[in-house]
Amino acid sequence: MKKTLRIKKKLIHLMKLSLLHISIAILFAGVSLAREVTAQELLDRKINIRITNQDIISVLASIEKQADVKFTYRPKLVIASQRMTFTVVNESLGQVLDRLLHPLQIKYKVIKNQIVLSPLTTQADEVRIQYEPDSQTESLADVAISGTVTDDKGDALPGVTVVVKGTARGTTTDAQGTYRISVTDVNSVLLFSFVGYNTKEVSIGNRTEINVQLEASNNQLTEVVVTGYTSQQKKDIIGAVSVVKASDLNATPSANLVAQLQVGQRVLRLVVPAILVVRHPFEFEDLLPMETTIHFM
Which InterPro entries match (predicted)? Predict the structure, then answer.
């Protein structure tokens, strides 16, 4: 009888040990599962943020406040001079980080409530989501470049064409001569062009503000625009009428037709697009033997 009791006690003791081991195993499994869920829940947090010409450090600080997370990284990992402009509306933290960090060659890892950033050295298929920006939208990693375009006298030039060399991305200056354009590569080159001025190429580098001064082109003969070719009587014309003969043009030592006309009509201000050239008779090929009438409108 006593022997039977001892056997029962041993069995009960073994059962208690087994239940304890099972409980511990379940507890650790639950903790592990909870960590994974917590990390995923953190990446699924929705954020709304608007960034205007801010550096990457300020962007990460704004995301920290929105998502209640903490970024950990080495200072040399991010380029403080690189500025960004973008808007995020009700997107998950994971989507924003993938789009923001992947173009910068930075990967991330969630550890508890922290997000650790490190250089991207793995293959592209190891990236959580490879983001390809739509051709009609601006990438989050675009760098905003702005500035003013002036002439050689310092006056603002409106309507100057500004293009990223080798791409179809471009803009024009406004009435104050200012422009704003976004580039995806700081090694890009901007082309500034305007009628009557020499085209200028400027490398971007680490600059976000680029002011450009264009020089007037010496070759202006091809820019004279004839807006009409007809025969009219003086009484039918509103405005002053002046006559410039071929001999008068030959007597002026200048290779620029506009300058020759200005010398012949010193009291008038010549606006090139408003010239109406009328010749007699109606033959266009031979200029010198003919009399040419210039109507200043």
Answer: CarboxyPept-like_regulatory
Structure confidence at residue 230 (pLDDT): 54
Q: What is the layout of strands, in order, in the sheet containing 212-213? A: 178-183, 143-150, 212-213
Provide the 10 A C-beta neighbour count for residue 47: 19
Q: Tokens for 25, please give them.
A: 């195993």
Domain total in the chain: 4
CA 61 centroid distance within chain: 23
pLDDT at 214 over 80: yes
- Confidence class of residue 158 from pLDDT cuts 50, 70 and 90? very high
Q: Residue 69 falls within a domain, yes or no?
A: yes
Query: Mean pLDDT highest for which of 81-85, 205-209, 285-289?
Result: 205-209
Q: Which residues contact 76 (CB under 8 A, 6 or more apart)?
A: none
- Measured CA to CA, the distance from residue 80 to residue 125 in angstroms comes to 28
Say whether both 204 and 175 belong to one domain: yes
The answer on 289 and 225 residing in a single domain is yes
Same domain membership, residue 99 and residue 61 = yes
Q: Is the dihedral of CA 40, 110, 66, 128 positive or negative?
A: negative
Q: Is the pTM of this model over 0.90?
A: no
Q: What are the tokens at 145?
A: 């470049």
Return the exposure string of 111-150: e unless at least 16 CB atoms fall within 10 Å of the residue's CB, then b.
Answer: eeeebebeebeeeeeeeeeebeeeeeebbbbbbbbebbbb
| pLDDT tens, residue by residue, 14-64 | 565 555 555 565 565 554 444 444 778 888 889 888 888 888 888 888 888
Q: Are 127 and 107 in contact (CB under 8 A)?
A: yes
